[in-house]
Design brief:
mainly alpha; 12 helices; elongated
Length: 263
């Protein structure tokens, strides 16, 4: 059997293992999914009228803020699910199963690939759920079929990039609790972006940070695809960010995985 076919076979086995774990132990997935859903409902039904009036100059209603909010919540869902990935791989490392895998005749890269593919698949399912809730409370996309496909590709690319970063964070953490703490920036950065308010409404020093972090261009690109707003340079900037984070996370994860045979 060639190296490629063996890697594909072993990666498929690891993918099934990770999906079975997610089905048997759903508490972690539910915990990371609960945060964006609660924030979505909170900002729509508690702060919606006030936020829409402030953003839209006093003449908008809650429906306008729902349209503004949902793309940011979708990106926050990806960040939150990445934290779960970091914890999951840290659990594998600390409980000794990775050491056992190293003694078996399997492709070493298959362990990481299984985690990444499984996490991205679960993230896409979570995104579908959050989007469904958004539509149920009034989100009305105006995208064509091509724009929907582009939006799905964008979300998948962001999920892949953040998942590889999360794998590196999980491998670098000494405990699952440490992995959870390491992954907090992936949850916090969407809060410090244009997810809830436009960057134009932020103070100067804060606005600079919000404009130059990876979530803001991704959110603006998704808004443009789903709602028809201008995308400008945010599209290619998002792709550059995603490719850079994917390469960085992949190389970092491989280096950490190869360096730590036993916890």
């Amino acid at each position: 059997m060639s190296t490629l076919s063996r890697t594909v076979r072993d990666s498929s086995t690891m993918l099934r293992r990770n999906l079975l774990h997610a089905r048997r132990y759903p508490s972690l997935t539910l915990n990371v999914l609960l945060t964006p859903i609660v924030l979505l409902l909170l900002f729509v039904y508690v702060f919606g009228d006030v936020m829409s009036a402030g953003i839209m100059g006093g003449g908008a209603d809650r429906a306008d803020y729902v349209a503004y909010l949902v793309p940011g919540i979708l990106l926050m869902t990806i960040g939150g699910h990445s934290v779960g990935t970091a914890v999951s791989i840290s659990v594998d490392m600390t409980q000794g199963i990775i050491a056992r895998f190293r003694t078996m005749a399997i492709s070493r890269s298959a362990v990481l690939i299984g985690h990444v593919v499984g996490s991205v698949a679960q993230t896409l399912a979570a995104l579908a759920l959050v989007l469904g809730i958004g539509i149920a409370i009034g989100f009305r996309p105006q995208a064509t079929v091509v724009e929907w496909c582009a939006a799905a590709g964008l979300l998948t690319l962001v999920a892949l990039a953040l998942t590889w970063v999360a794998v590196g964070l999980g491998l670098a953490a000494p405990t699952p609790e440490g992995a959870s703490n390491n992954g907090l920036p992936l949850m916090m950065l969407p809060l410090l972006s244009s997810a809830f308010v436009p960057v134009e409404a932020m103070p100067g020093w804060f606005r600079w940070f919000a404009e130059h972090q990876p979530f803001t261009p991704a959110i603006e690109t998704l808004r443009g695809l789903l709602l028809g707003s201008p995308i400008g340079h945010n599209g290619w900037l998002t792709v550059v960010w995603c490719l850079a984070l994917t390469v960085l996370g992949h190389r970092w994860s491989k280096a950490r995985f190869g360096r730590d045979p036993v916890r």
